[in-house]
Amino acid sequence: MREGRAGEAAGDDRLATVLRTVRAGNGFEEALEQILQIVRLGLVAEGERLPAERDLAERLGISRVTLREVLRVLAEQGIVESRRGRYGGTFVRAHHGPTDDGERLRVQAASLDLDDTLRFREVLEAGAAELCAARGLSDGEAGRLRAALDATHEAALHGYRRHDTLFHLTLVELAGSPSLTAQYAAVRATLNELLNRIPLLVRNLEHAQRQHGAMVVAVLDGDGEAARAIAREHCAGTAALLRGFLA
After folding, report:
1. In the record, which residues are listed under signal peptide (predicted)?
2. What would the CATH number be for the domain defined by 2-95?
3. CB pairs under 8 A, 24+ apart, for 224-227?
4. What is the domain partition of the chain in residue ranges?
5. Is CATH 1.20.120.530 the classification given to domain 105-246?
6. What Å distances lie between residue 155 and 3, 111, 169, 236, CA to CA?
7. How far apart are CA 63 and CA 211, in angstroms?
8. Do 242 and 32 touch, CB atoms closer than 8 A?
């Protein structure tokens, strides 16, 4: 019995190197990233159980409802499985070497510099949002931005990423710098290639939509600081998902 407890304590120490309280803005995405890191690093081995929900939620600083959504997504992706009963819990599923789909996607992503793409995207998009707010939009430009936002709300799931791309491109174009638009279009193409390698998560899309709406309000209110902050938080959420699945 003592040995088992010592093993659990050692496991907890290892998890402490990865698990941290998530930021309020992107709780779901960052929690998903951290649990994926635990699995990818082998801190909880295949067939072993993740910490209890209460403990994991406390460590991450999220509600158990949010944690259960994260675990449901991971179960749908075949990464963990839930078992009931006295010895139940959430267990890491066994995978079968480099032919596994997740491994294949990470190998493909290795040909792209993930961190560089994500940093460059954040710099360009946050700057564009601030510029839009600072320069002020005409009625016609504001109408274009609202229409692009509305299109994301009306999009079917299979077409969402196309409309999401068009919304962000519209925002960048309205900053008024053709050079900025060209650079953003290039990095967005790379970003979309990465996004197409991970699943569409409804919880993440709903969160992104709220951030889109807040960004548009800040831009139209002329609040450059808020527009920049919201854009950075939005980019950070996407980055957390991509790093979790592909890093």
Report:
1. none
2. 1.10.10.10
3. 224/129, 224/130, 224/131, 224/133, 224/134, 225/130, 226/133, 227/129, 227/130, 227/132, 227/133
4. 2-95, 105-246
5. yes
6. 55, 31, 16, 23
7. 20
8. no
The tens digit of pLDDT for each residue in 205-242 reads: 999 999 999 999 999 999 999 999 999 999 999 999 99
Given a contact cutoff of 8 angstroms between Cβ atoms, the answer to whether 39 and 79 are in contact is yes
Entry pTM: 0.79
State pLDDT tens for residues 80-137.
Answer: 999 988 888 999 998 644 445 555 555 455 556 889 999 999 999 999 999 999 999 9
Token pair 């979790």 is found at 244
Helix, coil or strand: residue 21: coil
DSSP, collapsed to helix, strand or coil, labels residue 90 as: strand
